[in-house]
């Protein structure tokens, strides 16, 4: 069964999507916007409520955590393998994200989404005023990837420190991060035609929030 994109778009009038690269401030933005406007925060991996329904035959990338040997295997993959996995997860999670949002719109609140839905799909299910791209230069996104206290980043850092050769493991993982935050990917976002905010050394959380509030037409 197909649900036509115009139907989804009409149901997503209270949904505000933020996409972009790592360390750009997407998670912080959706959290604070939801708090400020009494809305719903759909942070990173908000589709995880459906993970119990995935099947390794149909969602091999999302099922990777159930099929991998251990976490040392996870951190030791090559940059190409890691990038292919990230891309595969995004594609497999797209339908799960949309299904979850279709559930949440029934609550009749503004919904702020840190999304991995592709730019192409976003064009079909939303519009310019409901989409924002947040970017961070590759050097900053890689060098400061672990400068965050969220449990997932801390766990990966612990696994890297437990590797047989922690320095080599960290070097390889940084190359993985460089691959998924490449100049080509950055350019794809920056040339998308959507409203874009680029993080730099002078960026502040409040200034970024005000830009998003103005773009989204929130009051």
Write the layout of secondary structure elements.
Layout lengths: L4 H7 L3 E6 L5 H11 L3 E3 L21 H4 L3 H5 L3 H26 L6 E4 L4 H7 L5 E5 L2 H6 L7 H11 L4 H15 L2 H8 L4 E4 L6 H12 L3
Parallel strand pairs: 1-3, 1-4, 2-3, 4-5
Helix pairs in contact: 2-11, 5-9
Question: How would you sum up this structure, described in words?
Answer:
Helix 2 crosses helix 11 and helix 5 crosses helix 9. It contains eleven helices and five strands, in the order H-E-H-E-H-H-H-E-H-E-H-H-H-H-E-H. The chain has a five-stranded parallel sheet, sandwiched between helices. It is 51% helix and 10% strand. The chain has a single domain, classed as Rossmann fold (3-Layer(aba) Sandwich), CATH 3.40.50. The longest helix has 26 residues. By secondary structure, it is of the alpha/beta class. The N and C termini lie far apart (38 Å).
Number of domains: 1
What class do helices, strands and sheet pairing give? alpha/beta
CATH topology: Rossmann fold
Provide the low-confidence segments as ranges. none
CATH arch. level architecture: 3-Layer(aba) Sandwich
Enumerate the strands of the largest sheet in spatial order, edge to edge or round the barrel.
2-3-1-4-5
- Total of DSSP H or I helical runs spanning 4+ residues: 11
The coarse overall form would be globular
The count of β-strands is 5
For the terminal residues, how far apart are their CA atoms? 38 Å
Name of the CATH first level: Alpha Beta
The proportion of strand residues reads 5-15%
Could you estimate the helical fraction of the residues in percent? 40-55%
Mean pLDDT: 93
Radius of gyration: 18 Å
């Amino acid at each position: 069964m197909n649900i036509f994109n115009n139907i989804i778009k009409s149901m997503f009038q209270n949904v505000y999507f933020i996409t972009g690269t790592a360390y750009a401030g997407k998670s912080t933005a959706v959290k604070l916007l939801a708090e400020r406007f009494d809305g719903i925060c759909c942070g990173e991996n908000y589709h995880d409520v459906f993970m119990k329904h995935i099947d390794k035959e149909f969602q091999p990338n999302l099922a990777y955590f159930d099929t991998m040997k251990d976490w040392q295997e996870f951190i030791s993959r090559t940059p190409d393998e890691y990038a292919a996995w990230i891309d595969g997860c995004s594609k497999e999670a797209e339908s799960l994200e949309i299904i979850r949002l279709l559930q949440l719109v029934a609550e009749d609140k503004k919904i702020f989404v840190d999304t991995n839905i592709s730019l192409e799909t976003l064009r079909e299910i939303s519009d310019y005023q409901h989409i924002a791209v947040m970017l961070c230069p590759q050097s900053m996104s890689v060098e400061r990837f672990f400068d965050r206290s969220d449990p997932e980043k801390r766990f990966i850092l612990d696994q890297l420190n437990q590797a047989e050769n922690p320095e080599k493991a960290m070097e390889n993982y940084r190359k993985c991060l460089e691959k998924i935050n490449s100049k080509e990917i950055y350019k794809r976002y920056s040339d998308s035609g959507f409203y874009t905010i680029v993080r730099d050394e002078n960026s502040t959380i409040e200034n970024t929030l005000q830009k998003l509030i103005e773009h989204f037409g929130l009051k």
